[in-house]
Amino acid sequence: MADLDLPSRQGFAPDAALPTGLPGEIPLTITINGERRDLHVRPWTTLLDLLREDLHLYGTKKGCDHGQCGACTVLVDGQRINSCLSLAVSRDGCEVTTIEGLAAPDGALHPMQQAFIEHDAFQCGYCTPGQICSAVGLVKEGHAHSAEEIREGMSGNLCRCGAYTNIVDAIGDMLAQETSQEAAK
Amino acid sequence: MNRFSYARPGSVAEAVREVAAPASKVLAGGTNLVDLMKYNVERPAHLVDVTRLPGLKAIEETGEGGLRIGALVTNTALAYDPRVQERYPLLSSTILAGATAQLRNAATTGGNLLQRTRCYYFYDAATPCNKRVPGSGCPAIGGVNRIHAILGTSEQCIATHPSDMAVAMAALEAVIRVSGPGGERDIPIAEFHRLPGDTPERDTNLGADEIIVSVELPAPRFATNYTYLKLRDRLSYAFALVSVAAALDMDGGTVREARIALGGVAHKPWRVPEAEALLKGVVPERGAFSLVADRILEGAQGFGGNSFKIDLAHRAILRALSQAAAGTPQSQTDKRIQ
Ligand SMILES: Cc1cc2nc3c(=O)[nH]c(=O)nc-3n(C[C@H](O)[C@H](O)[C@H](O)COP(=O)(O)OP(=O)(O)OC[C@H]3O[C@@H](n4cnc5c(N)ncnc54)[C@H](O)[C@@H]3O)c2cc1C
Ligand code: SF4
Ligand code: FES
Ligand code: FES
Q: CATH for B5-52?
């Protein structure tokens, strides 16, 4: 993260309290989309900036950078989180899945990606990687069974284009498929 | 974000030593701290990442029939723990009323209690704010204060504590266990958060050299007649303007004990035990609830933008007590208020 060279203003802790000299980069071992990476990062790098700026995985989007939009949603150890509010160093040893890691190695789309296409669940597409990662997390959590529960469970993903209706339909379709597969077993 | 040094201690004792460093901060889920660091509101010199501390991610039974929740248990893990859902459904429901699935997956029990106010001026380092810079003034008084407090305010600060979870924990009389250089001590939740008074920069009574290790819930008593009613500007993903955690321990048709805690109205979860006592031995009905609401809101003061909260809180208390008495808790999915 760029360290802003801001003029001193009200509200800053006294700079005397800051360490002198730049603390070194910190070793970080993290598995991203199945690939183990041994990296060095500065402690103030967020997981989102690590993905985009250092690893050039631009699928994960930065919307607000403050946990308020969900565009940066990724799966960490299978759970959806906002990568903009997570420091990369604190995720040492974790497994991260981004939108780039959802499709099969042969390129076959993840069923959730397919469902989004079939239901026309996006317009500009900016929120879509976050929506899809979040939806994958939601299905895995297993707490949503109705359209209402999908809407509540997906409330952390805003869509400025307003594709919500089709997003809920796409996820509902996936859930129905999962349920019928479970029933068939 | 400013530059800082980083440590990832492997034991609570080591973490306590690390937080003793000047201008250090504990990092848990990061969902509040990292946000505030991006706004240059928090500028720690040293970050102590406690996420790897052993033993703080468990929910265990206590000898007294309660539950001990490790400080690192996530909001998600806590809300969906079967023991919590069964014995403390008020807590589960309250947590699910807060934030979003993504945030709850990262947010921890300790971090949630220590999250800071969402006061707009506190967040804007270009404006004065007594909480951020003691003595600089409080622009919320006489400024934009729709989300601010109506109870327990001071001339220095009218901020609210934004946590939902803490409101249920206040109603359930949770006890917070902290660890510091002198060992461990317990702080009842009623004494954990502070009123702003002349020291609005201090949100809680946690020492700068202490960390939260766990939160203990006493044996369950309010698993049937409870509700968490959260009123806000959007139906989801918004902080409470007013919220009410209500729990009744019923003895046939009358109330044995009532607990009522309010969120969004003060610098801490707001409880008035004398008001709760008015319900003791009483048949729960609207007339009695109204007296309770009057008592809870005694001395409430609006600041213009937030004056609507006084009436809103009164009605919310009535409605929450009706929901609790009927055993029909507010759904956190279907937001229609019954
Ligand atoms: C967009 C958005 C919406 C939200 N909506 C809601 C909502 O509706 N309701 C609600 O209740 N909350 C809401 N939240 C807040 C969220 O619940 C908190 O950010 C979260 O609970 C903080 O937990 P954390 O583990 O991420 O804490 P951190 O951000 O890691 O830490 C928060 C503070 O606690 C300190 N800390 C953490 N753990 C310890 C410990 N063990 N010992 C000592 N100090 C510690 C840190 O130093 C820091 O000061 C929202 C947040 C965002 C970004
Ligand atoms: S209400 Fe408190 S936090 Fe907000 S500006 Fe005033 S002093 Fe700061
Ligand atoms: S970019 Fe992370 S929530 Fe908006
Ligand atoms: S598709 Fe444009 S923001 Fe969602």
A: 3.30.43.10
